[in-house]
Amino acid sequence: MCGIVGAIAQRPVAAILLEGLRRLEYRGYDSAGIAVLNPDGQLNRARTLGKVARLAEAVAAQPLPGLLGIAHTRWATHGEPATHNAHPHICRDRCAVVHNGIIENHELLRAEQRAAGHRFTSETDTEVIVHALYDALAAGLSLIDAVRQTTAQLQGAYALGVLDRHDPEHLVAARQGSPLVIGIGFGEHFIASDVFALLPVTNRFIFLEEGDLAELTRETVRIWNAAGELVERPLKTSQVTAEAAERGSYRHFMLKEIFEQPQALAATLEGRLLADRVLPESFGSQAAALFSQIQAVTIVACGTSFHAALVARHWLEAIAGLPCQVEVASEYRYRAHVVPAQALFVTISQSGETADTLAALRLAQASGYAATLAICNVPESSLVRESDLVLLTRAGPEIGVASTKAFTTQLTALLLLTIALGRLHRLDATEEARLVTLLRSVPKQLEAVLALDAQIAALAEQFVDKQHTLFLGRGTQYPIALEGALKLKEISYIHAEAYPAGELKHGPLALIDEEMPVVVVAPNNALLEKLKSNLEEVRARGGQLFVFADSQVALTATAGVTVIRLPETDDLLAPLIFTVPLQLLAYHVAVLKGTDVDQPRNLAKSVTVE
Ligand code: HGA
Description:
By secondary structure, the chain is α/β, with parallel strands linked by helices. The protein has 19 helices and 25 strands. Strands 3-2-4-1-10-9-11-15 form an eight-stranded antiparallel sheet, with helices on one face. A seven-stranded antiparallel sheet has the order 5-6-7-8-12-13-14. Strands 17-16-18-19-20 form a five-stranded parallel sheet, sandwiched between helices. The longest helix is centred in the last third of the chain and has 20 residues, at 574-593. 54% of the residues are buried.
């Protein structure tokens, strides 16, 4: 989603802002803009449709000197992607605003402001903010008071960066529902949507909380909370290095992140396992006491994280013996639901800022769950801060919009959770020790499956000219089929659907003909024979089968049936192992099609709006 960067410094800020935007590109966006207050007190702006590189070219052609500025990458929610809708928005050459979020009462404010004589130059909801701000400044308020008065009129979600041409000494920021951090430099301060944007200039950050308002000068930072009290927020040193968010020698971030999975999983397990059991303290100091009360689990997530949750439902019910419900966050938050007795509410989100998941968490907190647990990749995120218990996935920065290592580390975290809860219910000590040993073997098994890369790259050629693809799986492999289909559609734009293989004859079989590739995930498990019957149903209608099977599966390649052999694995780990070739397949198809693999069209990384 949108990225915000702002700076007040003793050196020119344009290059810092542009580099910050470049580092936020992974979040997904359609246009970009920058406004800098120049030394003569002029507010200069550049905005372009498309990539930050184009904005950088525009700034190179017409430099923006100055020590105070704000910049933005926009992912349109109100008003088409177009230069005139790009941020920063400016009112009467006086004040400028960048905004991440949605102003829900923008129509009402727009009508009032129009009637009061304001002229609108965009279709965005954001523009009402800058006109309200102008009115407050024109009435004589200081910048901080003007922002305070303005935000009081806003309903919805926002992270804001604001500056006033008449006040070169202040940069003001506000947070309500969208993330914002302050970067602390020496004689300079910054704001950004996340820490990656600012890693070249600082590793010291203050994370704003909901309702915070911040006033930055070159030397000071003052923060007021939602109640209007001046507060101290902790200063944190980020462990993320600037290099961790670099592409290195890989052609795309996505490929780098696929290949980082063995290390990412090893890091997720590190320090969380004893020889024969999972340490419940890995989830937080209160976890052991809280887990002993748990009798049910509800998991809420979106997108890829939702698929991880669907796998976990199998594990929690089969291994831990706990009833488990799984739901998409945007549905959960808007329906009346019954809270099971002594239930643990689990949220899963790579960024920890997913707006629907956060809203679901806040709803759950008021609904009587026994405890909340976040499975998340970003330690400083809202989800982590607001949950009782946390298990960080330690995947490292994930930049590619299509999630890969975040998914497999989430699965690993969910296995840890299953085992930790299981020992308090159905799981005996011998089985627990066996599962822990299996878990330790995952990074090595992933290395082995990554060795299939060249074979899968060759296979991808058979998908390039296809319009549709069907993915089939059963049991824990159905969510993996869903994830494989999601990866393919996200980055190659081929329409892909996943079905539990047993559902085939209830409808999708009608789609099968010679043009329809059918991808099947077929580990050697109790459902294999049933799955084989489903494959026959496809073959009999001329469908092209691509079967990912482990070495134990008795299946031979024949005309119309391609078999891709995976290393043998235990059924417990099969979801992790079988995910990887599907990620590689989507990646290579997208490369062959020439799409923008890391930033696919219309999509955003950290989905901070609902
Ligand atoms: N609503 C604003 C900002 C959109 C946004 O935050 N996207 O992530 C707009 O449409 O410009």
